[in-house]
Every structure is written in structure tokens, then in C-alpha cells.
Design a protein that fits this description.
Distance between the termini: 99 Å
Structural class: mainly alpha
Number of helices: 9
Largest sheet: none
Number of strands: 0
Oligomer: single chain
Shape: elongated
Strand content: under 5%
Amino acid sequence: CRVTDENGKRPTITLGHRPSMTPTEAHKKYLDFASTGVITKQKADEKKQKALRAVQLTTVEALMPLYAAEHLENIKDSTAINFNRIVENDLVPFLEAYDNLNDVPHPDIKAHILDIKSTRGIEPARKAFHYFNSFFTWAVDERKLANNPVGNIRFKKLKLKAKSRERALSMAEAKLFLTALDNTNRLQDRTRIGLEILLLTAVRSGEL
């Protein structure tokens, strides 16, 4: 609507008051205030807070729940149990030592994996290596971290490849197997007899 006064004319509306100083004088006042260091300190504090927020977004506490939630959507329940155990026992305790996961050096990860290998064996170490690489690859792809330190570790040098086992059972293993077959009531007779024949003749199932 159009506002008019009693004489039908549009009134002059003033919002606030014009400052008593000129723009040049106002600029000089700003320079005088800036010279006190208050603005510089304020900007430095803002920069520090921004950096702090960035670091807080690159901690294991911030990133691991996001990674785990996305990863668990694509795996079976049986695999999820092992995944959660490895994350809780091998990944999180190690990564909690770093305030910024961009700063995790690959030699530290390598030493951690080799420690798992020496104390618990090749398979746990191999799985830990796999999930370390999976986590950092996800974080880089999601632009949450700048690099994947696991990419600098040569897998072959860790010697995590499981050694192939001989196909033949030892006499002690064969005895245990036959004893278990005789004592079980969970197999049909034809299944039990078939397994005994396979063991005693050393043929493949397709050759019977």
C-alpha cells in the first residue's frame, strides 16, 4: 500500500541518523582502533578456532563411527562381528593416540601391524592391514582426510601371506577324524561311510 499524509503527499521517512563524521573520518577512526591490536587478536582467535574445528573433524572419534556405519551396510552379519572386533581392538586404540589422523605416519602403522603379527599371528595382522587401508581409503574418498598412509606400506614386506598347508593329514589327525566319525550321531550313515572311504582311499569325491 502507499502511505500518504493528510494532504495526500508521501512523507519523508528517515531510518536512523546520519553520522556526524565524514567517511574519511570514519576510516581514520577504524585505523586508530585497528592499531590497538584488538582486531588482529580477534582474527587470530577466529583462525585458531577454525583450525581447532578442522582438527576435531579428523579424529578417530569423529570419523570411525561414520566409516563403520557405511561399511556395515554392505556386509553380512557374520562378517560384521569380526569387523567390529577388529575395529575395537586393533584400529581405534591405535588411532586414538593421534589428534589429527592426517598426521599418522605410515611407519607407526607398519610397526603396529607387525606387532599384531608377532603376538597373534599372520591372519589377525592381515585383517588389521586390510581394515586400516579400507578406513583411510574411505576417508580420502569422502574428502575427510588428505592422504592414506597405508598406501606407503609395501604389503609384501610385511610377509602376511598365509603359507599353504600340506593336503595330507597326519596319522594323529586321521585318528581323531575317524574317532569323531564313529562317535557322532549328527551324520547319516551314508555320509559317515563316504567320508571314511575318502580318507582311507585318498581319492577325490568326484572319483568315487
